[in-house]
Amino acid sequence: MTFDGIFALLVRYFSLLGAAMQSRFSGFLWGAAFLSLAIGTTQASAADLGLMASPAAVGNCSELVFVCENGKQYPLCPIAVSVAGEVVTASLHTGRGGAHVRLVPMGVGYRYAGRGIWLDGFRENALLNFGKHSQIACTLAH
Question: What is the H or E stretch that residue 33 is in?
Answer without folding.
Answer: helix 19-40
